[in-house]
Write a structure and sequence with these properties.
Elements: E1 3-9, E2 25-30, E3 33-37, H1 45-51, E4 59-63, H2 69-72, H3 75-82, E5 85-89, E6 97-101, E7 106-111, H4 118-123, E8 126-130, E9 135-138, E10 141-145, E11 160-164, E12 167-170, E13 177-181, E14 188-191, H5 198-209, E15 216-220, H6 228-240, E16 245-249, H7 254-264, E17 276-279
Parallel strand pairs: 3-4, 4-5, 5-8, 14-15, 15-16
Antiparallel strand pairs: 1-2, 1-17, 2-3, 6-7, 6-11, 9-10, 10-13, 11-12, 13-14
Bound molecules: fe (ii) ion (2 copies).
One fe (ii) ion (FE2) binds next to helix 2.
């Protein structure tokens, strides 16, 4: 069965006329089944869908990688197109996620969680299914979450904060989730932001699902604050999984993109808005 993964929203555009934004969204079409993975920030989703001559009608499930606005801000637009639809997410997806980074105009902690509440999204037609541990959620699709954090390879982004009451603490983003999508050969790993740590996620796939080989790794890898040595370790781990295609984007960071591109050469491609990845 053929599976098409179309990048609807990304920081970069791969085709003329598309809107780029700080956000990520993909449409997964597998046989007659259609799913949305993340909804971007709400800026380009509807516009880019029109350029692709696609709609979200017939999407039977929306999967959320985590609650940050750049993955959930487009949910209102998405729900207007899908109508009432099942939304699969980690139960902590509506955590009070914040950022503190002067470069992002945030000298004080600024809220970067979902712009709409659970109740507001439910009123728009979202029917939530909460998943807090990795499990199969569709024929050929695994929702990968609850990833254990290994201290020697967990490099938390210090700018990201969690608000509990009046207090802020480093945000573990425990609502982080990815998708593992089976193909006729090896599965594809589709990442949102990989806040759980891309190395932790790969170890988890190996430990729990006995995955030893991946056909492709697509999506945001959140390597922007990794040192060259740590990026080299990630490249080696991708090689351990025999990855045939590396299509990283969104929050990967330019230094990591350059290093991954230089290493993987024709196995590397930018998963920019408008790009389509097809697997038999
Ligand atoms: Fe994020
Ligand atoms: Fe993100």
């Amino acid at each position: 069965m053929r599976t098409d993964i179309t990048i609807l929203c990304d920081n970069y555009v791969g085709r003329p006329g598309f809107i780029g934004e700080h956000g990520f969204s993909t449409l997964i079409e597998s046989g007659d089944n259609r799913y949305l993975f993340d909804a971007g920030s709400g800026v380009g989703l509807s516009f880019n869908l029109k350029l692709l001559e696609k709609t979200l009608k017939g999407v039977s499930r929306i999967f959320l990688s985590h609650g940050h606005y750049d993955h959930t801000g487009g949910l209102k637009t998405a729900l207007q197109e899908t109508g009432p639809v099942n939304v699969v997410a980690h139960p902590k997806v509506f955590s009070r996620h914040f950022v503190k980074n002067p470069l992002m105009f945030a000298n004080e902690p600024r809220y970067i969680g979902s712009p709409l509440s659970k109740e507001e999204l439910a009123a728009l037609g979202a029917q939530f299914t909460w998943v807090d541990q990795t499990r199969q959620v569709e024929d050929g699709i695994w929702f990968v979450t609850g990833v254990p954090s290994k201290p020697d390879q967990s490099f938390q982004d210090p700018q990201l904060l969690l608000q509990e009451g009046d207090a802020f603490s480093p945000d573990p983003i425990s609502d982080d989730a990815s998708l593992l999508i089976e193909t006729s050969t090896d599965p594809v790993l589709l990442l949102g932001c990989a806040h759980a740590g891309v190395l932790n996620i790969l170890d988890h796939l190996q430990d729990t699902l006995k995955i030893r080989k991946l056909r492709a790794i697509l999506g945001g890898t959140h390597l922007m604050f990794f040192s060259p040595e740590r990026i080299a370790a990630v490249i080696q781990r991708f090689e351990d999984f025999g990855v045939e295609q590396v299509g990283v984007c969104h929050c990967t960071g330019m230094n990591a993109v350059v290093a991954l591109g230089a290493h993987f050469k024709d196995r590397f491609t930018a998963a920019a808005a408008g790009s389509v990845f097809s697997y038999d």
